[in-house]
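re: ur question from earlier - yeah i can do the single chain one, its not a big deal. heres the input i used so u can compare w yours
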Amino acid sequence: MCADAAREVGMSDSKADADAVSEGEYLPDNHGLKRTLNLPQSTAIVTGGIIGVSIFLVPAAVADIAGHPILALSIWLIAGVLSACAALSFAELGAAIPETGGTIVHLERAYGRVVSFFYGWMVLCGYGAAALAVVAIMASGYGLRLLPPDIAEKIDPKFMAMFFIALTASVNILGIGRSARLQFVLTIGKCLLIVILITLPFVMGSVDFSVFSRPAEPALDMSGIASAISNGLIITIFSYSGSHFVTQVAGEVKHPAKDIPRAILLGFGAVLALYLLLNLAFIIGIPFDVFRQSDAVAADLMEAAVGPIGAYVVAGGIVLSTLAVLNAQFLGYPRVAFALASEGLLPSWMAALHKTTRAPWVAVFVVALISMAYISTGSYSTILTSVGFVAHLFTTLAVAALLVLRYKEPNLKRPYKVSLYPWTPLVFVIFSIVYLISLLINKPMESLIGIAIVASGFPVYLWRRGKGEPAGLPHEVATDL
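and the output i got, formated as C-alpha cells:
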C-alpha cells in the first residue's frame, strides 16, 4: 500500500518533474512530497515570512536612536543590505541544493551531520517552536483589540494564541497547496496595508520634507553616528529575517533552480522597498519628535487620516501580518524536523506524510504541540531570548556554508551564483561574528543557557546515530497512519 501511494504521488508529480528534467534542472528526491509551489507562491513565502509586527513598531525606536531622519533611513538601508547578503547566499544554496529542510541540508553538506542535527534540534525544541509562540501571542494581542472590550476581557490571550497556532497548523496539514494559497492571500493583504500607509501622507496633504534639514538631536559626531548605527542595527536586522523559509520547502517547489532565486530576489526586494518607503512615510507624515516617541506609529498615522477607526484597521493588518509569518513558519520549521527524521536522526514516525494531502502532518503536529506548551507555561519569551545567540550562530554558519561548499564542491551545479563573491557572504559573516561576540559579552548567561538548551539534544543524537537507521524514506512506514 505504501508503495502504491508512493507511485501515485510520483505519477501526480511526473509532469512537473519531466518539465524540469527536460530543461536540465536537477531535482533531488523529495521524499514523497508534492512539487506544487509556483513562483508567486514561493515569493509570498519570502515576503510574508519576513514582514511581521516589527515594521509597525520598531521604526519609532530607530528614529529615537538616530535623532535625525536621514540617519534613521540609513540604518534601515544598511540593515537591508546586510540582510540581502544573507538572502542572496540562501538563493544560491537553495537553487544548487533544492532539498526539503533547506538550511539543515546545507549545513550537513558543509559541516556534517552533527551540526545539521543540532540546528534541527534547536528549531524543533528551541528557537523555532518559541518563535511560533511569540508570533501567536502578538497575533492574539492585536486580535483582541478588534473585539468589543467586554468580550475581549473575558478571553485569555494565551487561549487565542493557541487557537491561531491550531488554525495555521491545520491549514498546513491540509496540504501545501492550501497553505501556499493562504500565504499568498495574507501576504497580499499586509502589503496592501503598508502601501496604504505609505500613500497616506500624500493623500492627507501633510507631507513635510523640511524635516530632513533639521539638526540632529542630540548633535552627533562621527562616534555618535557609529554608535547610533550599531544600536539601530541590533533592533532592525531581525526585521529582515525569514528569506530562508522558501529553501526549507525547496522539495515542493516546481522549478527550484529558477524559482527559488527569483522568489528571494523579488520577495526580499519588495520588503526592502516597502520598509524604506514606509519609514519615509512616517518621517514626512508625522512630526519627527512625535514619531520618535510613538508607541504605535502606524496607528497614529492611520488615525490622523481616518479617525479612531484607523487603529482598528492597523490592528487588523497586524493580525494578517502575524498570521502570514505563522503560516510561513509552519511551512518551514516542521520540514526541518521532517528532514531530520528522513535521515534517521529522529524517529521515522516524525517523517510521516498524510495519505491524502502528502503533508508532513506529524512534524506539523509536534511543532504545534511544543509551541502550545510554551504558550501555556509562558516560557516562550525566555527560551527565545536564550536561544537567540545559538540561532544567529547557525544563521552565520548557514551563510558561511556558501563559502565552504564553493571550496568543497567546486563542481556542484549552481544555477544561480551570488554577485561580488566572496564579499557578499563575507560581509554578513563578519557582521554576525561581531554581533555574536557582543551578545556573549553583554548577555553571557542567556547565551550559555541557549547553548545548554541546544546541547540537550546530544543524547538524542547518540541514540539515533546508534540505531544505524539508513537515510532515505523511513516515513513510508508511517504513510498510512
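Confidence is low (pLDDT under 50) at residues 1-14, 16-24, 470-481. not sure if urs matches, ping me
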